[in-house]
């Protein structure tokens, strides 16, 4: 399997995504913002459609669309403080509409099919370097914001008293979520990236008792899901993204059936 360059790239990209998605997935789950991943995944699809329509790299279009959508969600949330969840619905609706319009302008939906369920084995050099570059940015900013994020999740009042500005922190975090989801659109698939953003985190929380322990368990499980999914999809000629998510769901269901002490 590793004799082929495309599989080497697939495992490199899979490893990167398996690390950065749980990093941002844990605060999303704890903040009850799981819908955010689904919203940005549809925004990424709109960006892909725009890229295909105007002739530039779809992954770059996905990244731009996700950043715009993520910041838009946060801007709407700040104006509708009593109805935070409405912000994701508004952006989700707009993303679906834009994706449909620009897909029809490309002359059909066949060219966008690879982005719906992912195509991690077909990434080129530009996309590989873009994923690595985004991963460096995400991990670096996450390390700088780790304490602030932790405090804002569990004690927002103390965070504000300690001088942490929640709006600025939320905007930066939304940016991290957006670029992470955007690079996962081509590799894992726009329709299922939100699942890999949340499911390993839920599994990790089942097996750990602390925030740091849940984060470590989530990353470990995410790596196991990706490696198992890539291996199985290679030998059975299946869609890697779909296999990865199904394995993750199976482990989650098994963990729910086992009573935790």
Automatic annotation (TrEMBL):
For membrane topology, the record states: Multi-pass membrane protein
Q: Record's Gene Ontology CC terms?
A: ATP-binding cassette (ABC) transporter complex
State the compartments where it is located.
Cell membrane; Membrane
Looking at the record's lineage, which domain of life comes first?
Bacteria
Q: Does the keyword Membrane apply?
A: yes
InterPro entries, sorted: ABC_BtuC-like, ABC_TroCD
| Entries under Pfam families matching the protein | ABC-3 (PF00950)
UniProt similarity note: Belongs to the ABC-3 integral membrane protein family.
Please report the name of this protein according to its UniProt entry.
Metal ABC transporter permease
List the source organism: Berryella wangjianweii
User: Which lineage is the organism of this entry classified under, starting from the top rank?
Assistant: Bacteria, Bacillati, Actinomycetota, Coriobacteriia, Eggerthellales
């Amino acid at each position: 399997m590793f004799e082929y360059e495309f599989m080497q790239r697939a495992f490199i990209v899979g490893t990167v995504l398996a690390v950065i998605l749980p990093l941002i997935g844990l605060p999303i789950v704890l903040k009850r913002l799981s819908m955010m991943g689904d919203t940005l995944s549809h925004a990424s699809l709109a960006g892909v459609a725009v890229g295909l329509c105007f002739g530039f790299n779809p992954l770059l279009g996905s990244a731009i669309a996700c950043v715009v959508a993520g910041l838009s969600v946060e801007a709407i949330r700040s104006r509708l403080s009593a109805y935070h969840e409405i912000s994701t619905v508004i952006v989700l609706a707009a993303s679906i509409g834009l994706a449909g319009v620009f897909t029809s302008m490309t002359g059909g939906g066949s060219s966008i099919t690879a982005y719906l369920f992912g195509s991690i084995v077909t990434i080129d050099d530009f996309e590989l370097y873009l994923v690595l570059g985004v991963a460096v940015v995400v991990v670096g900013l996450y390390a700088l914001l780790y304490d602030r994020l932790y405090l804002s999740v569990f004690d927002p009042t103390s965070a504000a008293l300690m001088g942490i500005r929640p709006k600025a922190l939320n905007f930066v975090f939304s940016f991290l979520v957006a670029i992470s989801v955007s690079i996962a659109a081509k590799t894992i698939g726009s329709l299922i990236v939100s699942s890999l953003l949340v499911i390993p985190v839920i599994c990790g929380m089942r097996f750990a008792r602390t925030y740091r322990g849940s984060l470590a368990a989530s990353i470990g499980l995410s790596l196991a899901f990706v490696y198992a999914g890539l291996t199985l999809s290679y030998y059975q000629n299946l869609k890697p993204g779909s296999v990865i998510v199904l394995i993750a769901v199976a482990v989650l269901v098994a963990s729910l059936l086992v009573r935790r002490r």
